[in-house]
Automatic annotation (TrEMBL):
Domain (Glutamyl/glutaminyl-tRNA synthetase class Ib anti-codon binding) ranges: 387-490
Organism in which the protein naturally occurs: Hylemonella gracilis str. Niagara R
Protein name in UniProt: Glutamine--tRNA ligase
Record's keyword terms, sorted: Aminoacyl-tRNA synthetase, ATP-binding, Cytoplasm, Ligase, Nucleotide-binding, Protein biosynthesis
Gene: glnS
EC numbers for this chain: 6.1.1.18
Matching NCBIfam families: glnS (TIGR00440), PRK14703.1 (NF011291)
Any one of the GO BP annotations: glutamyl-tRNA aminoacylation
Keyword set includes Nucleotide-binding: yes
Length: 605
């Protein structure tokens, strides 16, 4: 296919490149711009890899103006909410001369699956981003920092900022207090650093069973922020880790591990969702202690929160998505109805449309729901200038041209053509034939037309797009009254594109496919997976609102140009919407198309 030098293609290219001038400003951009102007991070050094203060100080001036990170836990497939986070973190790094790290947050010794690790990398690359900057792979595993995390924990103990607590979990919960009641100090809180260090090492050496003790930061049991009431930072778990094997039987808690991961990687702006706002004081407390102790590079990272993506008709909890898969409500993680990145991809969404969506919804600190129609609008905007057109009949009934033999000739076929894309004549033409028998949409014929119906009914004339004008003469029905054939006569000298073709005015134009050269294809008509716009809000049972009609499979007839469709190739089926050749099931000789979305928004209705 030729390269287009037209406006639409240029626009598409510009949005793909995500030029800075394009992106609307937001509070995160302002924070970053202020930091760049103030030179907040200008003097930082970088050793070429993650490391502690001494390592980084021995390095070069950091070539990255800012560093962000996308830190998924490799315990499931990424979804559209993660896509927002990927576009945000990688997009900001790209726009401000920075680098974004892909970091697997694999500090939990739960069963980690290489399948998830790989699918996360695929998702990031498919969305159009890269953790490789200047030949360096910025793909990191948090479990590689266990040694440093342990050292940081001992540092806190030695400086009187952490203690080993051996209360039972019940006692600990009771003594934590609540919003109105301050917590109570643990009887173990007054242990000396030497006692704590000895006991912590026993924890590390496997002398204690799971749950017998935890290491807690020593902050303030009366803090109005419950997260500062001596949070647990290390726990005992005799479990094998996919990366470190059996080296450890104690593992850091997420709230302790995450700030350290950011610090070791020289992250400047650590972006997370609003649920972590209450954790920020601990994030700062911990990094302040480690910086004061000379353990981490300076200036330290800062955390900023934004509102997570809530999309109508969609659930974005990995656990609930797993339930849909495990209970067979969908065919898998990549079912085209799933909001996973693999699902969106198979459904036919493009990386460009998802990037555009992320940019358009922007980032805010307000809790809100984004209408699903916004994503579809971005898809149409991306595909309209690109997708090849095709005629397809989804619900076929046969149309017979009863005067064909007289006006054209028995057994003859009439060659027709149409532009591959109406705005790109340079892309050429599609060819197909008009004959005595054609497929049309069943809904294009009405025996008794309702008001405003301009298509086929006895006595009415319509144009068959790119073909001839015909006059409807009625229909043949079976015993049950179902129409089996529509009959019409061709009006001579009305062929599209020939002189005088428009002499006869018609109000209706319908699409069709020749019986002679049409190809039978499986078409999967997807609809929203849930009927409730907020399927799991407020603890609702989301299974109760599963849409029983979320998939309707039909045998359609498609025009012959689609015989060469490749898996993943997108089309606009005229009058019907955007479709993609299924990346898994479509094959030459066995075409399968998925509906991505219609031509107009139908989500609001
Ligand atoms: P889940 O709760 O479904 O397991 P998670 O947030 O725990 O999702 P992680 O793998 O820990 O999943 O998330 C990686 C990153 O993606 C985090 O920085 C998180 O803030 C971000 N993220 C996850 N869900 C959303 C969302 N709906 N909108 C925006 N960002 C999100
Ligand atoms: Mg998580």
């Amino acid at each position: 296919m030729s390269v287009n030098h037209n406006n639409e293609a240029q626009k598409a290219d510009a949005s793909k490149a995500g030029a800075t001038s394009h992106a609307p400003s937001n509070f995160l951009r302002q924070i970053i711009e202020n930091d760049l102007n103030a030179g907040t991070y200008a003097a930082r050094r970088w050793a070429g890899q993650p490391g502690d203060a001494a390592t980084q100080q021995a390095g070069q001036p950091d070539p990255a103006k800012i560093r962000t990170r996308f830190p998924p836990e490799p315990n499931g497939y990424l979804h559209v909410g993660h896509a927002k986070s990927i576009c945000l973190n990688f997009g900001l790094a790209r726009d401000y001369g920075g680098i974004c790290h892909l970091r697997y947050d694999d500090t939990n010794p739960e069963k980690e699956d290489q399948e998830y690790v790989d699918s996360i990398a695929d998702a990031v690359q498919w969305l159009g981003f890269d953790w490789n900057a200047g030949g360096v792979e910025h793909r990191y595993y948090a479990s590689n920092y266990f040694d440093f995390m342990y050292r940081a924990a001992e540092h806190l103990i030695e400086t009187g900022k952490a203690y080993v607590d051996e209360q039972t979990p019940e006692q600990m919960r009771a003594n934590r207090g609540d919003f109105t009641t301050p917590g109570k100090d643990s009887p173990f809180r007054t242990r000396t650093p030497a006692e704590n260090l000895a006991r912590f090492r026993e924890m590390r050496d496997g002398k204690l069973p799971d749950g017998a003790a935890v290491l807690r930061a020593k902050i303030d049991m009366a803090s109005p922020n419950i997260n500062l009431r001596d949070p647990a930072i290390y726990r005992i778990k005799h479990a094998e880790h996919h990366n470190t094997g059996n080296s450890w039987c104690i593992y850091p808690m997420y709230t302790f591990a995450h700030p350290i991961e950011d610090a070791l990687e020289n992250i400047t702006h650590s972006l997370c969702t609003l649920e972590f706002e209450d954790q920020r004081p601990f994030y700062d407390w911990l990094l302040d202690r480690l910086r004061e102790g000379g353990l981490i590079n300076s200036p330290q990272p800062r955390q900023y929160e934004f509102a997570r993506l809530n999309l109508t008709y969609v659930i974005t909890s990995k656990r609930k998505l797993a339930q849909l898969v495990n209970e067979g409500h969908v065919t898998g993680w990549d079912d085209p109805r799933m909001p996973t990145i693999v699902g969106l991809r198979r459904r036919g969404y493009t990386p460009e449309s998802i990037q555009l969506f992320a940019e358009r919804i922007g980032v805010t600190k307000d809790y809100s729901w984004i209408d699903y129609g916004t994503l579809d609008a971005c898809l149409r905007e991306d595909l309209d200038p690109k997708a090849a057109r095709a005629m397809v009949v989804l619900d076929p009934v046969k149309l017979v041209i009863t005067n064909w033999d007289q006006v054209i000739g028995a057994g003859k076929l009439d060659d027709c053509h149409a532009p591959i894309h109406p705005h790109h004549p340079e892309r050429g033409q599609r060819q197909f034939t008009f004959g005595k028998e054609l497929w049309i949409e069943r809904s294009d014929y009405e025996e008794t037309p309702p008001k405003g119906f301009f298509r086929l009914f006895p006595g009415n004339k319509v144009r068959l797009k790119y073909g001839h004008v015909i006059e409807c003469k009625g229909a043949v029905k079976d015993a049950s009254g179902k129409v089996t054939e529509v009959h019409a006569e061709l009006i001579p000298d009305t062929k599209s594109g020939t002189p005088g073709a428009d002499a006869i005015k018609v109000k209706g134009v319908i699409t069709w496919v020749g019986v002679n050269d049409g190809i039978a294809a499986e078409v999967r008509l997807y609809d929203r997976l849930f009927t409730d716009p907020q399927p799991d809000a407020g603890g609702k049972d989301f299974l109760a609102s599963l849409n029983p009609d979320s998939l309707k499979t039909v045998t359609a007839y498609v025009e012959p140009s689609l015989a060469s469709a490749k898996p993943d190739e997108k089309f606009q089926f005229e009058r019907h919407g955007y479709f993609v050749a299924d990346r898994k099931d479509h094959a030459k000789g066995k075409p399968v198309f998925n509906r991505v979305t219609g031509l107009k928004d139908s989500w609001g209705k």
